[in-house]
Design a protein that fits this description.
The protein is built from five helices and five strands. The chain is α+β, with helices and mostly antiparallel strands. It has a single domain, classed as 3-Layer(aba) Sandwich (Aminopeptidase). It has a five-stranded mixed beta sheet, with helices on both faces. β2 and β3 form a beta hairpin. The protein starts with 6 loop residues before the first strand and ends with a helix.
């Protein structure tokens, strides 16, 4: 059909969970963190489609072929006094890069955040990932140098509550 874009972005369905897990392994490999992936189809299905979903995801397709994904969730800012959106991961397969897919995914999420009246749209990027930093800054994002990310994994959480 004339005028149709080769790019389609849509919400993940339950049938897409295996594909989503493949993408998660893809971004983990790119970030040199594949050894940290413990997600399973079951855990993703529960997180995205369980009785209390904790995240959402979208997939990008280029001419019908799975090309990229993004996972995001709602957070809250006490300073702004309303919900925000947090981008957990955005990834485009290497074979599909340089086609505007990452930009389209990002702007799709920014549009969702605006439609949902989010006070903020936030994410983190690895310090060595300069292409990502340039990409985000070209879209108008600013790097927050004064904030440091802290994390407790499941074992640290268990130690803290057991102390």
């Amino acid at each position: 059909m004339a005028g149709m874009s080769p790019l389609q972005i849509r919400a993940v369905t339950e049938a897409d969970v295996p594909l989503l897990l493949e993408f998660i392994h893809g971004i983990a490999e790119y970030e040199r963190l594949d050894h940290e992936v413990v997600a399973t189809e079951e855990s993703l299905r529960h997180a995205l489609f369980g009785s209390r979903p904790s995240a959402e995801a979208v997939l990008a397709f280029w001419e019908g072929e799975a090309a990229g994904f993004a996972v995001f969730f709602t957070n809250f800012s006490t300073f702004v006094g309303r919900a925000g959106m947090y981008l957990e991961d955005l990834f485009v397969k290497p074979a599909f890069r340089r086609r505007g897919i990452g930009r389209a995914l990002f702007l799709h999420l920014a549009g969702l955040a605006a439609t949902r009246h989010c006070g903020r749209f936030e994410w983190v990027a690895l310090d060595w990932n300069e292409p990502a930093a340039r990409f985000y800054e070209e879209l108008g994002a600013r790097r927050l140098e004064e904030w440091r990310l802290y994390r407790m994994d499941a074992a640290a959480l268990q130690r803290a509550v057991s102390a």
